[in-house]
């Protein structure tokens, strides 16, 4: 029993209101994750307004770094034209994995068995001098 809540909710992607508000705006590009970027109009400081429509859940950590800089007016031109090509050693950006099974778990975490490494004996507890 699936009901499409997307037209009424902002957390599942763009609502109808957002899509109506983007009429007349220019689609400037998309990224590897499928997010779509728009530009049009001016904000109160006279800067062009910029938007991202997420492909999937609205999570700001899913914006590619080059598009983040474009959204926040750190670069004026589109990332393809204004930024250097990625280096061969650069890894692709990952979204925030907190709360998922792929999240980082330190060695003493309960999800990893709850066993910490034994103390090495180099720790001295602080005691106040009276």
Features:
alpha+beta, three-stranded antiparallel beta sheet
Write the layout of secondary structure elements.
Layout: H1 16-21, E1 26-30, E2 36-42, E3 48-53, H2 65-71, H3 79-82
Antiparallel strand pairs: 1-2, 2-3
What's the arrangement of strands in the largest beta sheet?
A: 1-2-3
> What is the helix/strand order?
HEEEHH
* Main pleated sheet: 3 strands, antiparallel
Rg, Cα atoms, Å: 22 Å
Helix content: 10-25%
Measure the end-to-end span: 69 Å
Structural class: alpha+beta
Number of strands: 3
The unreliable regions are none
Shape designation: elongated
Number of helix segments? Answer: 3
Beta strand %: 5-15%
Task: Please provide a written account of the structure.
The structure is a single chain. The chain is an alpha+beta fold and 130 residues long. It is built from three helices and three strands; from the N terminus they run αβββαα. Strands 1-2-3 form a three-stranded antiparallel sheet, with helices on one face. The longest helix is centred in the middle third of the chain and has 7 residues. It is elongated. The termini are far apart.
Summarize the structure.
Helices cover 13% and strands 14% of the residues. The chain is of the alpha+beta class.
